Amino acid sequence: MNALQQFLAMGGYAAYVWPAYALFFAVLLADTLAPRLRRRRVLAELRARLARQSARQERKPLSTPASP
Amino acid sequence: MTAADTALPLLEARALSFFRQDEPVFAPLDFRLHAGELALVEGDNGSGKTTLLRMLAGLLHISAGELHWRGEPMQRDRCAGEILFLGHQLGLKADLSPRENLRIAAGLHGMREGAGAASVLARIGLRGYEDEPVRRLSAGQKKRAALARLLLLPASLWLLDEPYANLDRIGIALVNDLLESHTDTGGAAMVTSHGTVSFHGGEPRRIRMHD
Amino acid sequence: MASWIPLWLHKLGSPPTFYRFAGALQPWAMALALLLGAIGLYGGLVLAPADYQQADAYRIIFIHVPSAWMSMFIYAVMGVASFVALVWRIKLAEVVAMESAPIGAAFTFITLVTGSLWGKPMWGTWWTWDARLTSELVLLFLFLGVIGLYHAFEDRRQGARAAAFLAIIGIINVPIVHFSVNWWNTLHQGSTVNVFGQSKISADMLWPLLTMTLATKFYYLASLFSRARTDLLALEGGKDWVRKIAEDEASR
Amino acid sequence: MMNRPSLASACAAMLRRDLTLAWRRRGDIAMPVLYALIVTMLFPFALGPEDTLLQRIAGGVVLVTVLLAMLLALDAMFASDIEDGSLEQLVLAPQPLALMLGMKILAHWLATALPLIVIAPLMAAMLHLPGVVIPVLLLALVLATPLLSLLGAVLVALTAGTRRSGMLLALMLLPLCVPAVIFAAGAVAAAQQGLPWLAPVAWLAAALVLAVVLAPLACAAALRIALDA
């Protein structure tokens, strides 16, 4: 327990060392998550577009009569 | 087979297409344009007429296909000065007069400004407006001021995007006259228009744009 | 296309191939980054002894210095990819250049803030107008400029080309900034602080540092892969291979 | 076919065109000058009227104010030409685009930076800069302002295809200006302390020579990217 406290105290520099490490991990975590969220959004948009397109294609034969 | 078909075409497109955001703007195009020919580019709004003309002028990068100028791959400096482009935006400075605008165009084409400007402006129907700032001209008069470039500068190919827009009946006849004398003297032109246009001089070639 | 580009590179440059390739490698790169990071941090925070001058405050070095190296490394990658993108118009190069920029900005930001946190206890100030610090700040602005320019365009590929151009201008500029600030410091004597005084570093401290450097490299690779994959999906939205992916993921 | 006289006359036409346009809108020329004067006026009010303090910061304030005033005018360099299609005509003209853009940049420098240089002694006097330093300040401005115009032109060309460009331009340009500011202000500061000021001026001159050669080429390439959509 004492060793852990000593480790966390960082020789009195805890106020500088741990925020630095916290920032490091926070920024990189955000950097890792951003593309995942964006990927989900891009795929959702794509699926919506595909759905629109297929809906249009189903309508099409009705609006344009068969031509030779 | 006429003689024109066997001669080297001025402009030849093979499977030419343009992509915007990876979507083709128009289906691949094949056409040839010989000296003395007039081609009418037809298509609905959004069919890519303007895009095609901007690409032919060299403003847009060709996405796929080939474009040949006098039998050789089109390159910027090979056809420089031989093509005149008139787009939706007329390329006139509103603060300058038609005469000054013409003088700049002549200067950029390495020509000495001469007495040509006055007679060109008279022929185009802007007599009396030579020194009026373009800002104060009507839309049709602005169009005429831009068309004056075609008369002043020597070029073998004209690329005209909607040249009839904003023009009255006399103006339309004027454009037809210009096109006729240009093709008669061995020039070629490509014209976009979504309206129907009647040419006096023969039936123009038609290039149909599809999505 | 230039015929001297190796064939494998040309194949890898095709979006669906790269998408699969990056998808296969990304978890491994991330796993390696995490493993090396854990080892490096254990070595740096626990095993390495305290510095005889700086005591425990020096332990910021294990994230600060690798981040600083990464900020420059990523800028270099972005510059090379930008050059390739502009000259050969390869879409993958555009994607690599543009998706490197946010990662580079992240590492540059980390470098600046951790440097500040290290500087306060060591030389008593959060910031000094030293050549290194100023160049790093300019680097951050350049990364942000590239990102901003990229997103200012309606057409993504046009934006990528413009931003790639800016990245190349920046490459020329950063050394000039460094040089000019060095010169400036000779003019304004007294405001200089010896940032990295003693460069002798013991082996106990060196191996965690190098391990962390490797970890950040693999992290960059992993992050770049996942960003590039997402970007390719967005850019190639109309293509069949992307549609298939969209449908497959929906059914899952 | 294109021989030298035609090139020279094209350059002259370009230069005359832009200068005529600037002259027709004289009011726009006055704007950066007024802006610079007003900003300079604010400093004594913000910092107090102590001569020693104002003297110390005078050189730097004049330089940074001139830089910001130029930034203000930079945005408009290609805007109207893109809007009315004259840029397309310029790109398609059978002349080397880089040279024509060089003329445009020269005209822009004459219309915006030169008036600022002319009033720079006034700005310096408002901040009590010693008279002997003013020639060095002018020399530094004469070398640094074209550098900013050239660098700025490249970046304006890059943002030409976008709609919101003002703040973005500042974000991109200002970091790139750091060396120019350092050397120009360094020369003034050295002269003020009675130190040799030739070295920073020489560096500025070297950078200017490099920029005169490279920037128009880069500007042409950037504009082609901006128009290609």
First CA to last CA of chain B: what distance? 30 Å
Sketch the major β-sheet of chain B.
Answer: 5 strands, parallel
Which percent band covers the strand fraction of chain B?
15-25%
Residue-averaged pLDDT of chain A? 81
Strand-and-helix sequence of chain B, N→C?
HEEEEEHEEEHHHEHEE
Helix content of chain B: 25-40%
Annotation, overall tally of beta strands of chain A: 0
Q: What's the tally of helices of chain A?
A: 2
State Rg of chain B.
Answer: 17 Å
Query: Largest beta sheet of chain A, briefly?
Result: none
Choose one word for the global shape of chain A.
Answer: rod-shaped
Describe, in short, the structure shown.
Chain C: Keywords: Cell inner membrane, Cell membrane, Cytochrome c-type biogenesis, Membrane, Transmembrane, Transmembrane helix, Transport. The complex is a heterotetramer of chains A (68), B (211), C (252) and D (229). By secondary structure, chain A is an all-alpha fold.
Characterization of the model:
The complex is a heterotetramer of chains A (68), B (211), C (252) and D (229). With 68 residues, chain A is mainly α. Chain A has one domain. Chain A has helices at residues 2-9, 14-63. The radius of gyration of chain A is 28 Å and the shape is rod-shaped. Mean pLDDT of chain B is 82; it is low at 1-5. The longest helix of chain B is centred in the C-terminal third of the chain and has 16 residues, at 169-184. Chain B has a 5-stranded parallel sheet, with helices on both faces. Chain B has a 4-stranded antiparallel sheet with strand order 4-1-6-7, with no helix packed on it. Chain B has a domain at 93-150. Chain B is of the alpha/beta class and 211 residues long. Chain C is mainly alpha-helical and 252 residues long. Chain C has a domain at 40-187 and 206-233. Helices cover 79% and strands 0% of the residues of chain C. Chain C has 8 helices and no strands. Mean pLDDT of chain C is 86; it is low at 190-195. Classes of the chains: A mainly alpha (68), B alpha/beta (211), C mainly alpha (252), D mainly alpha (229).
